[in-house]
Specification:
alpha/beta; homodimer
């Protein structure tokens, strides 16, 4: 048993205290820019340098190190793998000592910690029916001496595409009523066999992660990513990954290109790509919205479209009241585009959602709930979908909001969806939950945070138990593939999430809970709901929050535990340990450099290229075309700019496109069609270059690199 | 009389020697990157700093300085100008000493030199019927005590747009034969009344700049831009211009935006913009070319399209010979896109013009002269023009090549143009002349450089004298708006252009003449031809060479003397004096940052933003969409990326679009329609915001800033 595990048992309490201290310091520090956080490593730190050189001289554990080296020679430096379908290429191999300049003790400490972190994420993903890479699972099983079986793997369940003639809105095939009873318990939905079971407090036996376990795991992870040896080790591994890719690129770039040139029919243009992060309310570009407003006025000037101070008004009257005429409107007066004024000002950015600064127009054109039942908004979205269908190879995953402000929201939203038949084979729907309980509480719309959670999740579990009570909602949920958590991450609540935190029902103050608190409760509910839905053969939901766009590093930690994949992830730059863990678990990140450029980070400083080179799984997404993009094809604009600024190769671009399909809510059937039959396999075996246009050399490089890093941990932990 | 003018007279010879030394050193230096050139100033130069502080302490000429200050107060610090149409805004005024930290002697020296430089460019522009800013002419007249008259102004003459029903290819209205005789004399076309006049060597009295005058003017300018005080003064002025714009922007950005918001109907999307620099052979994007090749094969597989080793082959046979099938082609195998492999490698870039690396396909699809008489190329261009017509607000100025290799080129090119009726109201044609005499000479296609010039310019002057000998050429020339000079500027010939240089007819070595040599002879011929064409009421040609993309700084000097406007201009960064002169004369620069990004300079290091802020007149252009762009709208892609990376405001973008129209070969009629009736006026009076969407505040800022800088020179030179 390693020193680390012993230590750990002794000091569970001590660690908790430490974690809380770190957490507090992180939340406090975030206003102080350019200061080294507790999670970061500085390259030219003199203390570190001295430590390093000491390690080189007195080797603490020569025997162990030698043993490790010989083991490495066996397992890491195997003859190069013989894939059937990968052309020869030049591999980068490191021969000799591999502990990368840390002492054996530090190496063991780090590997133990990383191993436990991996097992934590594996557990959370399984419980929520979310993805976890097969390669990692196999290595983890190997470490524990278990046999990995493909049957143990879980996969999110998505509704397959509708065939010609099938009606996406038909209610006949809805499953029958289970007659269960659903209740919120401590902020999480629970299902009971009947009312009796409720009284006895005996919910169904659906596994989920309770509050205390979550806190314990979180505290462990906080300590881990703030721990010196782990920081140093992961920092060095990441630097190595970067250099290794640069060498790989230098040696094999032309070979990869050759593969692509010899690949008939497929190029970047007809490789499938998914806009993995886009808000429905801003999914059209500014010019499109402008044209739509003008057209609607030409056709509907005399139609009653709005209620103004209780009085019904026509569109003409509404525009008269706003003292403007749609004919005069331009994209300038529309003023929905983010300019220099929005940089570092999320508040100003949010105001840009109001065309001409008038919230009435936002209501009329960009809301599902208004005097015309969201008809215009539905039409705009269907036009955007039409453009995607015309472009053939592009898909998008728009977010619609559920606020948790009242219990009716789901009914209204699904009513809108069904009424206007807002369906396209090129759109996969997501639900975004804004973290704005504090606003509702201040207006006394909800008594406590628990009610917000109830409003969000109870209707979903009820529709899962009995799809017939609300058929429109049940139909809508078929089309929903996941949940997102959204808001300005740079606002922070100052609340520290710990065992002493109030339970949701007790959270009745106006202050917002912390990011992590939100994340845990969303995750716990989704996981529980997914368990029941899978049992019933229904589609499940992925948890894909906004995370690491700004704010504290701990946000990224909460999502490492809970999210299938995240949007943004910029702050991974601030924690090498977390960045390395995101790499090891191939946790996908939907990046939006154009959005960042308008809000948080200049384009050329975006870590996208760095992440891509190191082997993190990234995709490109537009976030808000209305605010950020200029052309008629926002997703292509996003790719084109990234390609130009970062000098991406075609292989890079196609790899990003492939990532976007993998992480998306597209169904198994669609992924098979777009990526190839074996897409669930990892590495070159899972890639069909004829469909993805990603070079097999690249796939082999990625796969071997990941396996190498995982084997470092495995070899360290293996008992002799 | 100032010290400078005296000195100058004494040392004309001395200066020539100095200029030649500088020239030689500049040509030699260009391989040594990051070294400070003779034209540059370094911000942290200790000698300069010390000089500066000395100047502050012992003021050499207190009386003079005081007088200058009071004069400044009168003329520079007038009450703010009262334009009718400019909203109030906050102006940046400098009160007090204005000689910006140089001694009075240095100030006078610099102002005298700059003044003479301005008069040189004014002379060259007039002689070639090219544009020169009215504001500058007025100030120059003021300095000399002349009265400026609007009638003295020259403007290039362009063919007005064809009205509905008019035939752009009709030959009936061609002017009659003048029965003059044309001959080359020392590399420049000359026109004689008759054969007798030829014998007597008595050409018509058309003014042009002779070789020796050009060399003298050039030598003066070389000395000027290498002269310490001028470098320091202009460097400081440019720094001031930058800071001034930053302050202006900070104070007035919202006011400018307000103007635009209140400007009905017009926004960036429907502001006219011209792609001022694009090569016809690469004017389609890669996807377009791919689609076209596939389509042509579907329709024409059995058509004879090519001659292979003397044998006629069908398209199918050609592709069989190339061992490929168009059905399998992708943009990857097409391989025309510039990737990372082309950076700093112009040679590799040029190879990208061959689809699938096969020059046969370049011949078939991208040449005017081939077995199918350039039919495919004409069709592709007409498709590109169709896209521009659909986009409504976009225009382009494609370049077609005349090599000067043989006397038939014009006939063939204009035959192609007329046969396929390659005309669109959204295209303005330019002729590009590649600087590759050395290749033709090596193959013995031409006996000397003079023959190349003859092949290029003699047919043009002959068609000008008698449009009926070659009606197709005469029609084509109506559509041509200018000449471009193209090739890799970083190759340098090592030849120094001086009075001892061989005349073109004596230039029979294989070595290429220098850039400046090419430029002078192109300019002299164009100027001469323009003189005659204007007399005849024909359209004239602008000289718009590629310049300053790479290579020696002196390229930019040659074009300061001769070009209406240039493409690229990156190297202005290396010479503050030239950069300041480009600013003072508002010499337009068509910049292509995406092209630079693939070839010479990373996007984020592009000086575009800096130039724009300082007030240089820049436009955006695509150069080669086939090689650089990804989307269906290359010009919009170019604007979008610049807007995103440089965070341009809408006003910036519309100002750039307005610049592009101004510098283009669009006719007076079109410019009036696109920019407003008074577009020939400068400053806010010349801007119609309803058409351009450029804020009047911005126009006033630009105008007042230019006037202020010019007045500094004027006040310095004014004798009491």
């Amino acid at each position: 048993m390693s020193q680390f595990v012993m230590q750990e048992k002794k000091s569970a309490e001590h660690m908790r205290a430490f974690a809380e201290k770190v957490f507090a310091s992180d939340a406090k520090d975030e206003d102080v820019r350019d200061e080294v956080s507790m999670f970061d490593v500085v390259d030219d730190c003199p203390i570190l340098n001295e430590e390093q050189s000491n390690h080189c001289h007195h080797d603490d554990n020569l025997e162990k190190r030698k043993k490790m080296m010989s083991r490495a020679r066996e397992s890491l430096m195997d003859d190069k793998p013989a894939y059937l379908s990968v052309p020869d290429f030049q591999r980068v191999a490191i021969i000799g000592d591999f502990a990368t300049g840390v002492t054996m003790d530090d190496f063991e400490l780090a590997c133990n910690g990383l191993h436990r972190a991996l097992t934590i994420r594996e557990k959370y993903m399984k419980l929520a029916i979310q993805r976890f890479p097969r390669t990692v699972s196999q290595i983890l099983a190997g470490i524990d001496g278990r046999t990995w079986k493909v049957e143990d793997e879980v996969h999110p369940v998505f509704t397959p595409p509708y065939k010609a003639g099938e009606d996406p809105f038909e209610t006949k095939t809805l499953p029958e009523n289970l007659n269960y009873v659903a209740r919120m318990r401590d902020g999480v939905v629970h299902v009971y066999k009947d009312a009796q079971a409720v009284d006895k407090n005996e919910p169904l036996d659906l596994p989920f992660v309770d509050f205390n376990t979550f806190i314990d795991d979180m505290n462990f992870l906080i300590s881990l990513i703030a721990q010196g040896p782990t920081k140093t080790y992961t920092h060095r591994r990441l630097k190595f990954l970067m250099s290794k890719f640069n060498v790989h690129e230098m040696l094999n770039e032309m070979e990869e290109l050759k593969e692509l040139k010899n690949n008939p029919h497929r190029d970047f243009y007809n490789s499938r790509k998914v806009d993995t992060h886009i808000h429905a309310a801003a999914c059209m570009n500014q010019k499109h919205l402008l044209r739509f407003i003008k057209k609607s006025y030409r056709e509907d000037a005399d139609r009653v479209v709005h209620k103004l101070n209780g009085k019904e008004v026509t569109m003409k009257e509404l525009f008269d009241y706003l003292k403007m005429h749609p004919y005069d409107l331009t994209v300038d007066s529309l003023d929905v585009h983010a300019g220099r004024q929005t940089f570092q000002r999320f508040d100003k950015f949010n105001a840009k959602y109001n065309p001409v600064g008038a919230s009435e127009l936002r209501d009329l054109y960009m809301k599902t709930e208004n005097h015309i039942d969201g008809e215009y908004f539905a039409t705009i979205i269907k036009e955007v979908a039409g453009d995607l269908e015309d472009a053939r190879y592009q898909y998008a995953e728009p977010r619609l909001s559920i606020y948790g402000c009242n219990a009716n929201e789901w009914t209204k939203l699904s009513g809108w969806f069904n009424k206007h038949r807002v369906h396209s084979s090129h759109l996969k729907w997501m639900i975004q939950v804004p973290r704005i309980y504090d606003i509702f509480r201040a207006k006394n719309f909800v008594p406590h945070f628990g009610k917000t959670l109830e409003n969000i999740f109870l209707p979903v579990i009820e529709a899962t138990i009995n799809p017939h009570t609300n058929p429109e909602l049940s139909i809508f949920l078929r089309h929903v593939t996941g949940f997102d958590s959204v808001d300005d991450e740079s606002k922070h609540s100052g609340h520290m999430f710990c065992t002493k935190s109030p339970k949701p029902d007790e959270w009745d103050i106006v202050k917002n809970p912390s990011y992590t608190y939100y994340i845990y409760y969303m995750y716990a509910n989704i996981a529980y709901i997914n368990q029941l839905r899978r049992q019933r053969g229904m589609n499940t939901f992925q948890f894909r929050p906004h995370c690491g766009e700004a704010g504290a590093v701990t946000h990224l930690l909460a999502c490492f535990m809970t999210a299938d994949n995240i949007s943004h992830g910029l702050n991974l730059k601030k924690s090498p340990a977390l960045q390395y863990l995101y790499f090891l678990t191939q946790l996908p990140i939907a990046m939006s450099p154009l959005s960042n450029n308008s809000l948080f980070l200049e384009y050329s400083k975006n870590p996208l290229l760095e992440f891509l080179k190191k082997g993190l799984v990234i995709s490109l997404s537009t976030d808000d075309p209305m605010q950020f993009h200029f052309t008629r094809e926002p997703l292509m604009e996003e790719y084109a700019i990234a390609a130009q600024v970062f000098k991406l190769s075609t292989c890079d671009m196609c790899e990003i496109a492939r990532n976007s399909v993998l992480m998306s809510g597209l169904s198994i059937e669609e992924k098979t069609h777009f990526l190839g039959e074996d897409f669930l396999k990892e590495g070159p075996a899972g890639n069909d270059i004829r469909k993805t246009n990603v070079a097999q050399i690249r796939m082999a490089y990625r796969y071997e690199t990941l396996t190498y890093e995982l084997n470092l941990i495995k070899n360290c932990l293996k008992t002799d």
